[in-house]
Amino acid sequence: MKIPEDLSYTSEHLWVRSAENGCCFAGITGYAQDLLGDIVYVEAPVVGKVLRAGTPCGLIESVKTSSDLHAPLDGVVEAINEALQNAPEQINDVPYVAWIFKFRPNNQADSAKLLDAKAYRKLLGI
Hints:
alpha+beta; CATH 2.40.50.100; three-stranded antiparallel sheet; 18% helix; 33% strand
């Protein structure tokens, strides 16, 4: 299973990629999309939503089940990936490219609380 070294991770199986201007992109990991199966719907958090780390902020539905998206850090949603509204299967095809939302963390230092690739692999037992 591919776990990119340049991303950070949460124990709820979201990845986080730092972007320009102190923002971050978030999506679900390859492990998560594998467990969910064919993704049929993404309910991203709305732009402007205040995120609280670890709390539900959206929803992913698959042919098997649905699962909450948990905010990776405290912050504010700045954008959502509109392309997923018509093609949620992109998450299955390219989970580390198909970001779900872009957010601005309240405190960049909080990123240190996220898992690196090694710690995420350990969490998964691989």
